[in-house]
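Shape matters. Shown next:

___
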Amino acid sequence: MTRYRRIDTELGALFATVADDGIAAIHFVGGRHAPIIGSDWIEDASSPLLDACEAQLRDYLRGRRRDFALPLAARGTAFQQRVWREIASIGYGATISYGELARRCGAPEAIRAAAAATGRNPLSIVVPCHRVVGADGSLTGYAGGLDRKARLLALEAA
């Protein structure tokens, strides 16, 4: 059973899922790599953790929050976890390239692997993969769509 909440935002609908130890995922509905809400999923209107997640996402999207204070419980390989930790360390309004991300992960030759792990980030916005751009600063790859990536960066005035 997966407990989740749908969150309608200015950027479109998101859904967040919760595990016993934290927020497991935040995806744009219909986004690339987003799971399909199944019959075994239960919409949870009473989870304090999902309440906090929704409130913090709304505050961020309204320009009233720069950082998130949520326990996170994303599941992934050791390399994916390392990439996601590095992404989480990118400051509000800043961007880095996929090559720089690979270097920060200690694997400078693994640019494509770092990009693939970025694309599989299950915690959209909270783990800000929208802050990772092409080597020339171009907007490339975002599971929620490049329009949303551009809007998130504009929100942060990056």
Summary: The domain at 78-155 is CATH 1.10.10.10 (Arc Repressor Mutant, subunit A). Helices lie at 48-61, 78-88, 98-104, 111-119, 146-155. The chain has two domains: 2-61, 78-155. The radius of gyration is 15 Å.
